[in-house]
Specification:
globular; mainly alpha
Length: 624
C-alpha cells in the first residue's frame, strides 16, 4: 500500500511540473493553512498546485485563441476558478477578460452588420442573426466575486451603449414615457445579472446589484423580487414596501405600475401590462402563480392603498395623457383589480367603480385590441373540466381551407397529448400537408419520450425511443435517460441499453457534433455503472470531438421544430449530459492525474478549455 502511495505521489509530482510554461513566470501561489483534509491526504497540496498551474496556463493560452468570444469566456472562467486561491491575480484576469469581451463584441457587431447588408443586397431583406455578446458572462462571473468590479463593468457597458447610440444617431436617453415592460437596456441588463446571481445562491451580491434597477417599477425588477422572496422573504418584502412608498409619491406612476406591483401580492411570476389601445401583454415565468401563503396581511393592505392612490388620480385629457397605459389601459387595469378591491378593501371599491365608469367611453371607442381573458388571467382559476381538444375540433366546421384544418388538427393533437389522450396520433394522421404531418409525428414522438422521462417511466421512455420517428441523437438520448432511470435497480440491463444506444450514436454523421454529444451522454451514464468501461469509452468521445470543429463541449441541447407556411412551433431542451463539464468533474474526482491528460487530448480550443477548467475546479472550489 505504501508503495502505491509513493507511485501516485510521483505521478502527480510529474503532472505538477510537466505543464506548459507561460510567457512570464507566475507568482508563487499564496499558501493556505494546512487543513484536516491536507493532513489526511498529503497529495491535496500537490493536486492544488497542479490545478492552479493548469488554470493559469490556460488563461495565458486563451489570450491567443482564434475565437475572440472564447478568449473572453475562458479568461473570465479562469479568474472565477482562481478567486478563492488568489483574488488579486483573479481580479487582474477579470479585467483582461473584459477587454477581450469588449473587442469580441465590437467584432461580432461588425460581422452581424456585414451579414445584414449582404442579405439585403441579395434578397432585398435585412434579416440576420445576432452573434452572442461576450460581456454578460464576464460581468456575471466578476459581479458574484466582487460587487465593485461588477458595478465597474456595468458602468462601462452603459457608456459603450451611449457611444454606440451616438455613433448611429440614435437617442441613448430614457424615453419620455417609461415603458415598464421594456425598460432601458441598462436596467434590463442589471436585473438579468442580479437574477442570475440570485439563482446561483449569491443573494447578497444579487441584492446589491439589483437594488438600483427596481425603480421605476418594471417587469424584470418584479421578477427579481419574486425570486428573492424564495431566498429571503424579509429582504424582498422590505424592498417591496419601499417601492410602494415611492410609487405613492411619484406623479409619473401609472396603471401599469400598479398592475406590475399587484403581481407580488396576487400573481407571482405572472406580469401583465396594458398598451394605450387597451391590449394586454403577459409575461409568465412559472406555471404556478398562487399568492404566497406567508404574505403578511399588512403588505397586501399597503398595496391596495397605494394602488387606489394611483388609480384614483384625475385622468388627464387624451391629448395630455403621457402614461404608458393611457386611458384604455387604465380602464383595463381597474377592471382587472376591481374584484380584488371588493374582496379585500371594500371601502375603496365604490370610488374605483366610478373611475371605471368614467373611462368606459374611451374603452368602448375601439375594442379590437382588448384581450378580455387578460382581465382574469392568474386571478380566476381555469376550469379543470375544460376540454381543449373538443374546443379545437368544434372549429372545423368554420375552416375554409386545408391549411386552416391542418392548424386545427395540430392544436387538437397538442391538447390531446397534454391531456394524455390516446387520440393525439389520430389527429396528426388527419393533417393533409405531408411535410407538416411528418414533422408533427416526429414532434409528438419526442414529446412522448421527454414526458416519460419527466415522469420517471423508464419502460415508456425506452419504448418510445425505440419505435418513434426520431433522429438518431434523439433516440440515443432517450435510451441513455432510460438507462439512468433503471441504473440502480437493474444495472445489467441499463448497461445493455447503453450498448444499444452506442450502436445508434454511431449512425450519426461523423462530421456532426451531435455524434460527439450522443457518445458523451452515453459515457456520462456509463460512469455510474462501470467506471473502467467509461474511461475506455472516453477515447471514442475525444476522437469524435477532434474530428468535428463545431463541437464546443458546452451548451448542448436538443431542438424539436415544426415549420408551417407561416410560423413555426419549437421546443428547446438543455441536455447536461451533452456537455463535457459534468463528466470531467466525475472523472477528475476518480483520477485527477488521468483526467488532466485526457483533457489535454482535445485538439480544439473550446472543448480543451471546458474540460481543463472542470478538472481544476474539483480541487480549487471549496464547496467541492
Amino acid at each position: 500500500m505504501a508503495r502505491q502511495v509513493r507511485q501516485s505521489f510521483l505521478a502527480l509530482f510529474i503532472v505538477a511540473f510537466a505543464l506548459p510554461t507561460f510567457a512570464q513566470t507566475p507568482a508563487k501561489p499564496k499558501r493556505t493553512p494546512r487543513t484536516a483534509t491536507a493532513d489526511a491526504d498529503p497529495l491535496v497540496e500537490v493536486r492544488r498546485n497542479a490545478a492552479i498551474t493548469l488554470v493559469t496556463s490556460l488563461a495565458d493560452e486563451a489570450r491567443n485563441f482564434r475565437d475572440q468570444t472564447l478568449r473572453a469566456r475562458v479568461q473570465a472562467r479562469a479568474a472565477d476558478a482562481l478567486w478563492e486561491t488568489d483574488a488579486e491575480r483573479a481580479r487582474a484576469l477579470f479585467r483582461r477578460a473584459w477587454e477581450a469581451a469588449e473587442a469580441a463584441d465590437v467584432e461580432n457587431a461588425r460581422r452581424t452588420e456585414d451579414e445584414r447588408r449582404a442579405i439585403q443586397a441579395s434578397r432585398g431583406s435585412s434579416a440576420s442573426r445576432s452573434l452572442p455578446s461576450a460581456r454578460p458572462e464576464v460581468l456575471r462571473l466578476a459581479a458574484r466575486r466582487d460587487r465593485q468590479l461588477g458595478e465597474e463593468f456595468l458602468a462601462k457597458m452603459e457608456e459603450a451603449r451611449k457611444q454606440e447610440a451616438s455613433a448611429t444617431n440614435q437617442p441613448a436617453a430614457t424615453p419620455a414615457v417609461f415603458n415598464p415592460d421594456e425598460p432601458p437596456a441598462n436596467v434590463e441588463q442589471r436585473m438579468s445579472l442580479a437574477r442570475q446571481l440570485l439563482e446561483e445562491g449569491n443573494v447578497e451580491s444579487a441584492m446589491q446589484i439589483g437594488d438600483t434597477g427596481l425603480y421605476p417599477v418594471n417587469v424584470f425588477g418584479m421578477n427579481f423580487l419574486d425570486k428573492l422572496r424564495e431566498k429571503n422573504a424579509a429582504a424582498a418584502d422590505q424592498r417591496y414596501t419601499a417601492l410602494l412608498s415611492r410609487v405613492a409619491l411619484d406623479p409619473a406612476s401609472d396603471a401599469n405600475t400598479v398592475s406590475l406591483l399587484s403581481s407580488y401580492v396576487f400573481t407571482p411570476y405572472l406580469y401583465l401590462t396594458f398598451s394605450r389601445n387597451g391590449g394586454g401583454h403577459t409575461r409568465r415565468w412559472r406555471d404556478d402563480n398562487s399568492p404566497p401563503a406567508d404574505l403578511p396581511a399588512q403588505l397586501r393592505a399597503a398595496f391596495l392603498q397605494t394602488a387606489a392612490t394611483v388609480l384614483l388620480r384625475p385622468t388627464p385629457p387624451p391629448e395630455q395623457d403621457k402614461t404608458s397605459a393611457g386611458r384604455k389601459g387604465k380602464h383595463s387595469v381597474i377592471a382587472r383589480l376591481a374584484p380584488l378591491f371588493e374582496q379585500h378593501a371594500p371601502d375603496k371599491a365604490p370610488a374605483l367603480r366610478a373611475q371605471l365608469a368614467a373611462l368606459q367611453p374611451d374603452a368602448r371607442e375601439d375594442d379590437r385590441h382588448v384581450d378580455e381573458s387578460a382581465l382574469t388571467r392568474g386571478l380566476v382559476p381555469e376550469d379543470p373540466n375544460r376540454d381543449r381538444v373538443q374546443e379545437s375540433l368544434d372549429r372545423l366546421n368554420r375552416a375554409k381551407t386545408a391549411e386552416e384544418r391542418d392548424q386545427i388538427y395540430v392544436q387538437a393533437a397538442m391538447a390531446a397529448a397534454e391531456q394524455k389522450d390516446a387520440r393525439a396520433r389520430e389527429f396528426v394522421d388527419k393533417i393533409e400537408d405531408l411535410d407538416v404531418r411528418r414533422q408533427m409525428r416526429a414532434f409528438m414522438d419526442f414529446r412522448a419520450v421527454s414526458s416519460a422521462i419527466r415522469d420517471k417511466n423508464a419502460e415508456d421512455a425506452l419504448r418510445f425511443a425505440r419505435s418513434g420517428e426520431l433522429s438518431s441523437v434523439q433516440r440515443t438520448w432517450g435510451m441513455t435517460e432510460a438507462a439512468r432511470l433503471l441504473g440502480k435497480a437493474e444495472a445489467g440491463r441499463a448497461i445493455e441499453i447503453l450498448e444499444e444506444a452506442t450502436t445508434e450514436a454511431r449512425r450519426i454523421d461523423p462530421a456532426s457534433p451531435d455524434r460527439t454529444r450522443a457518445l458523451l451522454s452515453i459515457v456520462t451514464q456509463l460512469f455510474e455503472l462501470d467506471r473502467a468501461r467509461a474511461w475506455d469509452a472516453m477515447a471514442e468521445v475525444v476522437k469524435s470531438a477532434n474530428a468535428v470543429s463545431a463541437f464546443t463541449g458546452e451548451d448542448g441541447g436538443l431542438t424539436v421544430r415544426v415549420k408551417f407556411k407561416e410560423g413555426a412551433m419549437t421546443m428547446n431542451f438543455n441536455i447536461e449530459s451533452f456537455d463535457l463539464g459534468g463528466i470531467f468533474t466525475a472523472l477528475a474526482r476518480d483520477d485527477f492525474n488521468r483526467a488532466v491528460e485526457l483533457a489535454r487530448s482535445f485538439t480544439a480550443e473550446s472543448p480543451r478549455a471546458t474540460a481543463t477548467l472542470a478538472v481544476a475546479r474539483t480541487v480549487l472550489d471549496k464547496k467541492r
